[in-house]
């Protein structure tokens, strides 16, 4: 009886060890299969991902990549950039530049959001800016095409608002020494930094109309108003000349 009991315990113990080994082998096998499946899924996801994805904030222009600052690297991109600058020049009365070195995308975006609707700020490579202004009334802009520049393209009615927005931006981010005005061009005339600021303080066309109407005799005011209305779509200087020419031609105009 004791022998049979001992034999039974030995058999059960041996069987338990065999079962334990089988479970251990099965567990290792399952773990290996799981690792292979996970690796396979990762490889499949990698190769099925869209290729050539661009970075956030990268601007596409002229069939090539450009940084958010607008730099170009291919012939097509350069041509597109020059054409864009030419379009902005056609709609501008004032352009001026500030250094753009070290300005982050966030800070530049903040500036652009402050500008009046019809004013634009853009980093333009010096060689492309020279090409864009060559042979135009803006040709003297080449005088400030040194180092990296951000150019402002400003329409007639937005000059004061643009300079005010720029001044507030400089003050908020403490950029007085980093991004001062380098110079600009106003309707064909070169401007130094003080000249650019002075142009920003000029009265708007509407304000000038009001000043002229108040300063001239009431007897000629109606005729002058008609002339000013006709000149509304022209340049500011043209409007002023029309107003004064009209006053001088009137028979009741005052003489010296």
Explain what the structure shows.
- This protein is 54% helix and 11% strand.
- It has 256 residues and is an alpha+beta fold.
- The strands form two sheets. The protein has a five-stranded antiparallel β-sheet with strand order 4-5-3-6-7.
- The longest helix has 47 residues.
- The relative contact order is 0.08.
Secondary structure elements and their pairing?
Layout: H1 2-48, E1 59-61, E2 64-66, H2 75-90, E3 94-99, H3 105-114, E4 120-123, H4 126-133, E5 149-154, H5 159-173, E6 183-186, E7 189-191, H6 193-199, H7 205-215, H8 221-230, H9 236-249
Antiparallel strand pairs: 1-2, 3-5, 3-6, 4-5, 6-7
Helix pairs in contact: 2-4, 3-5, 8-9
**Uncertain residue ranges:** 2-7, 49-70
Shape: elongated
Number of helices: 9
- Please write the string of helix (H) and strand (E) elements: HEEHEHEHEHEEHHHH
User: Quick one: how many beta strands?
Assistant: 7
Q: From the alpha-carbon coordinates, what is the Rg to the nearest angstrom?
A: 37 Å
Measured as a percent range, the helix fraction is: 40-55%
Mean pLDDT: 75
Main sheet overview: 5 strands, antiparallel
SS-derived structural category:
alpha+beta
In spatial order, strands of the major sheet run 4-5-3-6-7
Percent in strands = 5-15%
The N- to C-terminal Cα distance equals: 149 Å
